[in-house]
Amino acid sequence: xxxxxxxxxxxxxxxxxxxxxxxxxxxxxxxxxxxxxxxxxxxxxxxxxxxxxxxxxxxxxxxxxxxxxxxxxxxxxxxxxxxxxxxxxxxxxxxxxxxxxxxxxxxxxxxxxxxxxxxxxxxxxxxxxxxxxxxxxxxxxxxxxxxxxxxxxxxxxxxxxxxxxxxxxxxxxxxxxxxxxxxxxxxxxxxxxxxxxxxxxxxxxxxxxxxxxxxxxxxxxxxxxxxxxxxxxxxxxxxxxxxxxxx
Length: 247
Description:
- The protein has helices at 15-30, 69-84, 102-106, 127-140, 160-178, 188-202, 232-240; strands at 4-9, 32-34, 46-48, 53-55, 93-98, 117-123, 184-187.
- By secondary structure, it is an alpha/beta fold.
- The chain has a single domain (4-246), classed as Rossmann fold, CATH 3.40.50.300.
- Strands 2-5-1-6-7 form a five-stranded parallel β-sheet.
- Helix 1 (15-30) runs parallel beside helix 6.
- The longest helix is centred in the last third of the chain and has 19 residues, at 160-178.
């Protein structure tokens, strides 16, 4: 078995519960440590020991839109070095979640992870609904709240630049899938349909785990998302005239 599992996803795909499920499974049966959004600057719950990296999964600071990409890149590259210093020559095994922005932050150094890693892609079958979730968060800089995200109707103005960023992120994910031999993907809709056990089975992991006492993240937006936007018609037009509508 590889010493690293990467859960690769575009933001707001439902990756938070799915990565938590897979991380918990790998910890239970294969002694992996789940490092959550390891490379993201706003995940501050990491403790770097001489022999092992630990993670406190509740330690996120709010997203800061003024935070410089140079500093984000420096943090990500430092964490990459700390991870690589452990996985080749120790018995430690880790799982973590990454987004397509990882390639912008650490560049070609991402390739250093490939020999050690198995990648599971987390996606949404409903690409338009995924887009709306993405635009809600990147327009408001609100990504996860314990009670779920709540917005008033017509209160959110989506930008075309965020739409383009989503389109690019999806394209990068699909490209990364094309580089894999028989890529493994799990869909958020699998979780909604069959819960944690179906998610695990979709990845080819077979052992049974009792999920009843495991606290999974709450669904963030449960209502009709399109009516929350003040430029809903424009979003529909962007989508229909893009490559996303053909997926």
